[in-house]
Write a structure and sequence with these properties.
Length: about 180
């Protein structure tokens, strides 16, 4: 596995892949996403398996942890181990990793949670709401997963995420993110 950080010029394909792999309420608009590349705490990486461009990951480093905001393996490379090898590399590099997943209500969502659990992530039991990315999007009730263990400092982590990633204040309420 090899990760190559990209700049604004490489963002069009990545953003198109984001739109294919994530719900509209889980995305910023194209222009806002591309502008984030200038933030030192944010990185967009193409994932290579050998010479094949197999997916992408976006990572924030707002504190003493990495936050995987978006991670996808392109459909033609799924179920071949690339996703597992990629997420293992992220965990190895950053040590403490946090990500959001949809609540496991359908089979795909259940498999996604199980995938991360197989790679050492745990579901944090506290209620978590992903703030709205745009004025025309909704907040999303999700699960927060962390590696290598559950968060002992949940409120501190959420405050850092809300500030850096979503640009909103966290007041400690489980239904925050309005």
């Amino acid at each position: 596995m090899r990760f190559c950080k990209i700049g604004k010029n490489g963002m069009d394909r990545i953003y198109d892949a984001m739109r294919e792999n994530f719900a509209n309420d889980e995305l910023r608009d194209r222009e806002s996403t591309i502008c984030l590349v200038d933030d030192d705490r944010y990185g967009v990486y193409r994932i290579y398996d050998g010479d094949e461009d197999v997916g992408f990951v976006t990572i924030w480093t707002p504190g003493d942890f990495a936050f995987v905001e978006h991670f996808a393996i392109y459909e033609e490379f799924r179920n071949k181990g690339a996703g597992g090898r990629a997420i293992d590399e992220v965990c190895k590099k950053y040590g403490k990793v946090i990500l959001e997943v949809e609540k496991p209500e359908d089979e795909v969502q259940k498999r996604r949670v199980a995938f991360y659990e197989r790679h050492g992530f745990v579901v944090n039991p506290q209620p978590y709401v992903q703030p709205a990315y745009r004025r025309d999007s909704k907040r999303v009730h999700m699960l927060l997963m962390s590696y290598p263990r559950a968060l002992s400092d949940f409120d501190r982590i959420i405050a850092l995420l809300y500030d850096a990633v979503y640009r909103v204040k966290y007041d400690g309420s489980p239904d925050d993110g309005a």
